[in-house]
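Model it.
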Amino acid sequence: MPEALQQQQAEASSEEMRAQLDSLRGEVERLRVANGELSQKASKRKAEAETLQASLTDAQAQLNTATSEVNRLTVEIPRKQFAEELSPYPDEFLEILSKDFSIDKKDGVLRFLTKAGEHVRDDKGSIIPLEAKAVSDFLSSRGAMGKNVYNALLIGSRATGSGGSPTATHRTQQTKPASPQFGLR
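Modeled.
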């Protein structure tokens, strides 16, 4: 009997093991299915991330383009126009000016600044406004080196010595054709 009991126990144990093995096989199959689903989701998410990254790159490029255009419109063009007011050689003027000063935005306004980004001040400590006359006077009053460099580039005066533009009465007198003289007088 002990042998029969052992055999029954072995068969019961074998049945139990088969049941556990079937259960584990079922679990492995469920895990394979879940793994496949997760792999598909991961691939899908990776594709979405790549799409988002491409969109982000495009948006960043558009932002850079817009920022450079805003800078061109709000800083570079006004800076160039200001230089044209001060000098018949605006590009050279800006190049020489950039060695000591800058004309840039500070607090949202175009200003005359030092290389350190601080407001340019005169000898009395007053801020030099970004106005043609004020900047021209300041640059002209600088030391011997400054006078030589900036005075050569600044417009000294807009006076031409021509007496100004003709008035309306002068124009009519100037444009009247001489009346032809026929016959003896």
